[in-house]
C-alpha cells in the first residue's frame, strides 16, 4: 500500500497518547488530562522541536530526545512523565552515502516516545513507565492491524536484539529478553522465538555506544532494537551479519544506569533510582516498509519531489533532455542525460558538447520488457553511444542517485531554513551551504543550465506543511535565498573551473599528465569544485588525478577540523545544577526597568560560587529580572544589582534555556546566593535601544513598500548608538529610494501612533498578517508588534520597544552598501543621534558654500563643475597636458636608456609651469624607473621641472638639490622634494644649454648610482 505520511504521523501520536492515558488510569471517555498538546507542546502538529538545538552540544537537533534533556534529569520542563513526538532531525556525517544506500538521509523524521521516571506521577496526571510497557506498546504499534490503530507489519519479517553484556556475558539484559520472549511466544514456538532474539554487544546495543568499557561517564543504559527483514534480494545472513537486509526500524533505550570510573576503561554501572525510556524509530524507514519500496528515497515521501524534478521544471527541456511526445523520458521511469559528463566522450567524437535526440532515437524500441524501476536498471541495449551495456547501466544508476540526492537535500535545506538556519560560512549555516551546493552540482550533471532547486521548495511545503506549519511562514523567502545561493555558487564554480584550467596548462607545460592531489583538494576547499568534476575535466584533457594525494589532503583537513571535546549528552556542572533547583527566570522587562529579585545562582569560570567579592567577575542568575537578554538582534541590557551598599555592575545580559545570565563585576561590597537585590537597568541606554529597535520595524516595512515584497530581513543588530539591518535585494539602493524610505519612516514617527502588543500562537499571528522575521526561531507563543498608522508594520518580535512611534523622534540613514552577494546593509540612527547627523551634514554643506564660493542653492552645480574640471585635467595629463602631441612624442623619441632607467629631457616650448607637471605624469607612466628634466619658456622667464622615480630616490638622488644647480644656468633658483622639484629663471635664451648640461649631469649620476 502507499501510505499517507500525515495519517501515519497522527496514527503514531494517537496510539501512544492512548497508551499513556490508559497507563495513567484515565478512562477511555475521560476528556480531561493528558491532551495531546500538553504532551507534545510545540507550534506544530508533531511535537517536534526546532532543528536548532537548545544547547551548543551539536550543530543540529539529531535525535528526538534533545528537547527532553532536562526532563530526563528530573526537571520536567514539559510538565509530563510521558511524551510522544515526531521529531525533525539532521545528521550529516553520512552525507556521502545519501542516495547510494537504502536508508541514509541528511534530514529525517524520528518517531519518539519517552518516559521520565518509571512509575512516577507527573503534574498533568501522567505516569512514567519502563521496559514492559515500552516493549509491548511498540510491538503492538508495528503489528496490530491498520483498523486497530497499528501498522499491520508482517510479524514473520520482524526480529529483535537485546544487550548481551560484556565479553563474558555479564550484565545481559535478561529483563528485556524476557518481555520479548513473552510477546514472541504467543506467535512462535520456543526454538523459533530464540532465533528471533539476537544478543549484541555494547557497541550495538548500549547507549552511548561502548559506554561500559569506554565511557563517557553519566546516564546510560542498554538498548533493544526492532528489525525488518527486507528479503532475499538484499543478501543472506541475519541481524548480526547483514545490516542491508535486516533494517532497524526502532530502538528503545533503557536509561537505567549511572556510569562512573576511568575513561577509557571499564566503568561501574550504578542503577538509577528513576529509570527512563527513550524510543526512536525512523519515519522514512517505516514508510518505505509500508510502501513496499526498495529504498527510503523511493517511498511516497519523495514521489512528488522527484516527479516535479522530472516533469515540471522547464529547464529540463531547454537543457535538451530527451522527450517523447512532449513527455520526459522519465515517464518510462528511467533517466538519460542530455549534457554533462556522462556522455562526454561520445558527444566529443561528434563534435558537440552534449548528447542530442538522434543519439537516443531508437532507444525506446530497444528497451526490453517492463519499465525500469527506481533501482539500478538491468539493460540489454544495442550499441548506441557505447558498445558496453555496463556503461549504460552505470549512467542510469548514477542518474537515479543524483535525483534521489536532490530530493533529500532540498527537503533538508527547506526545513533547516524554515527553522532559521540560513546559509553562511560557519557552523550549521556552512553545512546548509554545502548541502545546497552538492544538490546544485547534481542538477548540473542531470542537465540543468542554471538555478533550479528553489523551484522545488513549494513541493516540500505542500507535502509537509500540514504537519509542520512553520514551513508555510517563509516559503518565498526560503526559495529566494536558495536561488541566491545557487546563483552565487554558479559563479564560484565557473571560477573554480578557470583555476583548474590554469593548473592543467601548467602541468602540460611540464609534460605532467597527473594533477597534484593537494592542488585539486584546495580547489574544493576554496571554490567548492568537487573531485568528480575535476576528474571529468582532466579526462577530457587526457590527464589523471593524483587520488592518493587528494585523499591525504582531505584527511589532513578532516583531522585539523576535528574538535578535541568529548560529547557530553547530559550536561553536568553549575548550570545543570541550577536547572534542577530553580525555575526559569521570569522576565519583567516589558513592564519595568527596576525590580526586586533574588539571586539563585552565581558562577565564576564555569563553577558555582556562594559568594563573590569586590573585583570578582561572574555570572549572576536571578529568579526574576527586568534586564533584556541579547536576542533577535537586540543587544543585552546593562545596569546594576544592588543590595545594601554592595553593587554588582551588569556589563551584558544573555539567555540560556530561559535562564537570564547577568554578566559583570562586583564594584563594591559582596554578593551572595539568596541575596534580595534591586535590579536596575540603565534606562537611558534601554530607551535608545527601544528607539532603534522600533525604527528597525518601521524601516523594514518601508523597504518592502519602496523596493518590493521580495525584501526579507537577513540579519540585524540593534544597539543604543544605532541599528544595522541586512536585507535581500539584488542591487544598490539609490539615493532617491533612500529618501523615500526615510520619508516613510519619519512620516510614521510623526503619526505618533501607539505601539500595539499581542501574544498568540504563530499560526494565529500568521492569520493576522504578522510577518515572521526570516532566520529567527520562535516558540509556541509569540509577541506580535503593530506600529504606525493603519497597521503600517506588523511583525513577530520579542524585543523591547517604544510606547508610541513618536518616541523614536527622528530617523536618518547613515550608509547603504553590500553585505554579501544579493544582500544589502543599511546603517541608521534615531533620536538625538539622527539630529546630530543632520546637523553635521548641514555644517559640511555650509563649508562647501564657503570653499566653492557658490551662490545659495548652487553648491551642487558648483561642485559638479569642479569635478568636470578635474576630469578634464586628468584627461590632459594622459595626453600630455596642453602641449601638442608632437612635442610629447619628440621627448619620448629622444629618451635614452641609462642602465635600467629611462632618461627624458625636453624643451616643451611656450607653456605654463603647471603644464610641466601634467607632461611629467604622462611620461612617468611609460617607465617604472625614470629621470625627467623638462623646461618651458614664457615672456622673460623660464620654468624647469626635475623628477625621479621612487627607486632612484632610494638610491640617493634628490630632485630638490639638483634642480637648483641646473637653474643657475638660466639665472634662477629652485628646490623641492626628492621625487619632484621645480625652478624658475630669467634667461629664456639659455634654456637649451641648461637642458643639455642637465642631460649630461643626469646621465653621469645615473651611471654612478648603478641605474
Characterize the overall form. globular
Please report the total strand number as a whole number: 36
Major sheet: 8 strands, mixed
Provide the residue-averaged pLDDT: 84
Category from helices, strands and their pairing: alpha+beta
Distance between the termini: 89 Å
Strand content: 15-25%
**Number of helical elements:** 30
Residue stretches low in confidence (pLDDT < 50, at least 5 long) are 36-41, 314-387, 563-568
Structural features, described:
It is a single chain. The protein has 1011 residues and is an alpha+beta fold. Helix content is 37%, strand content 23%. The protein contains 30 helices and 36 strands. The strands form nine sheets. Strands 1, 2, 3, 4, 5, 6, 7 and 8 form an eight-stranded mixed β-sheet that branches. A six-stranded antiparallel beta barrel has the order 14-17-21-20-19-23. The chain is globular and about 125 Å long. The protein starts with a helix and ends with a helix. Mean pLDDT is 84; it is low at 36-41, 314-387 and 563-568.
In a few lines, what is going on in this structure?
The chain has 1011 residues and is of the alpha+beta class.
Outline the secondary-structure elements:
Elements: H1 5-24, H2 36-39, H3 69-72, E1 82-90, E2 107-116, H4 131-143, E3 158-163, H5 174-184, H6 190-195, E4 197-200, E5 206-207, H7 211-214, E6 218-229, E7 246-260, E8 268-282, H8 283-291, H9 303-311, H10 315-319, E9 323-324, E10 327-328, H11 344-349, H12 363-366, H13 389-418, H14 427-445, H15 457-464, H16 475-509, E11 514-515, H17 517-527, H18 531-540, E12 544-545, H19 547-561, H20 574-581, E13 586-587, E14 594-604, E15 607-608, E16 611-613, E17 617-622, E18 624-625, E19 639-643, E20 646-656, E21 659-668, E22 670-672, E23 676-681, H21 683-707, E24 713-719, E25 722-728, H22 735-751, E26 756-760, H23 762-767, E27 782-787, E28 793-796, E29 811-820, E30 823-830, H24 831-852, H25 859-879, H26 885-893, E31 896-898, E32 901-910, H27 913-924, E33 930-938, E34 941-948, H28 950-954, H29 959-967, E35 972-976, E36 980-985, H30 991-1008
Parallel strand pairs: 3-4, 11-12, 13-18, 32-33
Antiparallel strand pairs: 1-2, 2-8, 3-6, 5-6, 6-7, 7-8, 9-10, 14-15, 14-17, 14-23, 16-22, 17-21, 19-20, 19-23, 20-21, 24-25, 25-30, 26-27, 27-28, 29-30, 31-32, 33-34, 34-36, 35-36
Helix pairs in contact: 4-5, 13-14, 14-16, 16-17, 17-19, 21-22, 25-27
